[in-house]
């Protein structure tokens, strides 16, 4: 049941945030490996990107890829949050004295993230016909193209997100700012987690997006980047340090709300379930 509730929470958040994912991806690919000022900027900022995409491609384009995104979120975050929830319920995130351990929380978040992301990688690569084409062209291994390159991003993002969420909830409970078991605890903790995860993940997010979108040769090998470290180094060298934070506004508007909604929905679904099954 933990995995089902986790998947449903992530899907609920995805419906609201998928347009932000579309905007973020386009902004991150804009001016790829070109020095600032040498290319035409189609999107000046997040809001301009929304308006431009809506005018040029139509409003439906803002929900492009929603079906595979929902499937990916259900599978990836269902496994990730479900695994973390089981670890939390089993008391593995607490010390022998019963206090919350940020180190254990971060480790559990990283491991849960690796499991979810690696199993969900084929869905991230495409859906149905795309999966068939990738499998025929690059073989079964091709379905996981870029998966290993994305693991550093997943480790950093998942551990930061879940550790910050649990630690903030624990601190707020100790300080008794809100009533015990109040929904406000989860909401504020999710908001803090949203800020932390965007700051930690932005460089990896840019690199991962470019790894997945780069052209490949007949063997499925990337033609532009050898891996995530190479993507980060090339981006920093060509576009400067701010190139690694390209689209951070869009990243926050996507990852921030998605983190807030998914963690909030997840926390509330678990609370309801445990309340009515006692």
TrEMBL record:
SUPFAM superfamilies in the cross-refs: Mitochondrial carrier (SSF103506)
Source organism of this protein record: Mandrillus leucophaeus
Its membrane topology: Multi-pass membrane protein
InterPro entries from the UniProt entry: MCP_dom_sf, MCP_transmembrane, Mito_Carrier_Antiporter
Family: Belongs to the mitochondrial carrier (TC 2.A.29) family.
Catalytic activity: a dicarboxylate(in) + sulfate(out) = a dicarboxylate(out) + sulfate(in)
Summary of the function given for this chain in its UniProt record: Putative antiporter that exchanges dicarboxylates and sulfur oxoanions across the inner membrane of mitochondria.
Pfam entry (one): Mito_carr
GO CC terms in record: mitochondrial inner membrane
Keyword line: Membrane, Mitochondrion, Mitochondrion inner membrane, Repeat, Transmembrane, Transmembrane helix, Transport
Cell location: Mitochondrion inner membrane
Solcar repeat extents: 1-90, 100-171, 181-272
Protein name, as recorded: Solute carrier family 25 member 35
Encoding gene per record: SLC25A35
